[in-house]
Amino acid sequence: MTPVSFLTTAQRENYGRYSVPLTPEELARFFHLTDDDRALIENKRGDHSRLGFALQITSVRYLGTFPEESDLIPSAVLKTLGQQLSIVNVKCFREYRESQQRWAHMAEIRNYYGYRDFSDSIVGFRLTRWLYDLCWTGTDRPGILFDRATDWLLAHKVLLPGWSLLERFVSKVRSCAEIRLWRFLGQGLSEDQKQRLEALLTIPEGSRRSSQLDQLRSGPVRVSGPSLVKALDRLQAVRDLRITLPPTAKIPPSRIAALARFANTAKVTAIIRLPVERRLATLVAFIHHLEATAHDEALEILEILLHDLFGTAKRADKKARLRTLKDLDKAATTLATVCNAILDPAFPDNSLRTRVFSMAPREEIAKAVETVSALVRPPDDVFYCELSEGYNSVRRYFPAVLKHIWFDANPAGKPVVAALAWLRCHEAEKVTEAAPVEVVSKAWARYVLSANGGIDHRAYTFCVLDSLLAALQRRDVFVTPSWRYADPRTGLLTGPEWEATRPVICRTLGLSPQPEPILSAMTEELDNTYRAVLNGLPDNPAVRFETVNGKPDLVLSPLDELKESPAFLAMDPELGPTMADGGERTEEQRDATTRK
What we know:
single chain
C-alpha cells in the first residue's frame, strides 16, 4: 500500500500560507479589488476593519483558506490593499487581527462568494472522480498529486482542509487505482500461468544460477551471430509463458510501463515480498513489455550484423579492385591503342585488321578484353563474390531469424515478407518450387536468376537480406509487439474514425473536405506558373544557357542583396553602428543576420 506520509517538509510548511515573495503579476491578479469587493468593504467601519476584510477576501482567493498567522502577511500585500483603499497607515491591521469580528467576516465572505467546505459530499465526489482519473491514466508521484488536488480546490472555491487530511485523501484514492490495476492485470490468469509466473522468482535447488527473472532481464551485450541466436531464444522463452493482457481491460500504457520498470530494476527478493495481487500484476506487465523489448533487441543486432556484412563486402571489393588496378590499366591501354587505330580515317577498311594486328597481336587483344571483362564492375554492383564468403556465418543465425521473427509490411515491403516466407519453407538450397522474384532488383538479377528460369539459392538469400536491411531502415517491414520496429501507421485514423474526424481537421486547416477542387486549383496554378516562366525565358536577363563540355547548362544570375530597413537595424544591436550609419556590413554582421 502507498504510505500515508509522503509530503516533504517544504510542502507542509507552505500549505495554505504566504511562503514565497509575490510577483507583481500575482499581486495584480489576486489582490486587485473588484467593484463587488469594494461594495462589501465600504460597509465596514474603521480603516482596520476595511483593511482586514479586504485581506480576508484576497487571501482566501490566493491561498484557498483564511490566513491564520497574521504575522506572516507580506508587506507588499498590505501596501497593495492600502493603496486601493486609500489607507496610509497599514499597521492598523494589528487591531483587526486581535478582534473577534474577523470570524463573522469569514462567514460573510464564504456565503457571498460561494466558498464550500471540503466536507461537502458533492466536493468529495467530484474531487475523487477527478483525482482517480489522474491516478488511473498517469504515474505522478503522490506529492505531485497533492499539489494538483490543491490547485483543483482553489479553482473550485473549496476551502483547503488540513494538510494531513488531504494527504490521506490522496493516498486513499491512489491506492484504490493501484488495486484496480493489479486486479485487472491478474484477472485473466489461469492457475498454470500463475505457477509459471511464480517460478520466475525461484532459483533451482542446488544451482548457483540466478532466477529465471534475472536471466530474462539480461539482454544481449555483444553484436554477433551467437548473441543474436541467444536473443531469439530469450524472445521465444517469453512467448512460451503465454502471458497476455486482458482484452476487455483498457489499461493505460503508462501504468503498465511503470510496473514493468519496477520489475526490471528491483531485486527478486523485493518482488517476492509484494502482496500476491501486486506481484502477479507486476510480472504480467514485465512479460508484456519484455516481449516487445526482446523483439527490438534481436532486430537491432540483426540490423547491425547485416550492415556490417554488406559494408565489409563493399570494402573487400574496393581492396580487390585496388590490387588489380595495374592489370586493368595495362589491358585498357592496349584496347585504347587498338581503338585509336580503328577510329583513324587514314586507314582504309580493307587493311584495318592487318594494321590492328600489327600494333597488337590477336592473343594480346583477346587477353586484354578478358581482363577488362573480369575486372570491370557495373555501377550498381552488389559485391556478391565477397558476400558469398560470409554465407556460412549467415547460416548460423538466419534460420533462427526465420523461425522466431514474423514480419508484417506495408505495400512497399510485401515482396520482402513474401520472400522471407518462401525461405522459411525452403531452407534447402536444392528446391524446385519457384521463388517470388518481386524482391530481386536489377542489380541482383544477374546473380540470382539463371538462364533456365531457376534461382541461385545462396544469391537469393543475400538478395533478400539486402532488401530486408533497406526495408527495416525505411520501416517498410515491422513486427508486433515492438517499440522501435512497430508499424509506423499505428495510431493513424482510418476508416469510419477518419471520416468522422476529417471535417473537423479540414475546417481547422481551412481546407475543403473534398480534395478535388483544391487539387484542381493547385494543378492549374502550377501549370500557369510553368507556362509564365517558359514564355518569359527569352526576355529574362537573369536566365541564360551556356555550353559546358559540349552540353547546354542552365545558369541563373544571383539575386541582388536587399538592404535592411532602418527599423530592423535599430532593434538589432548585433549589426552594430556600421550599418546604422549606412556603411557595408562586416562578415560577422552577415553571419549574425544569417543565423537569425
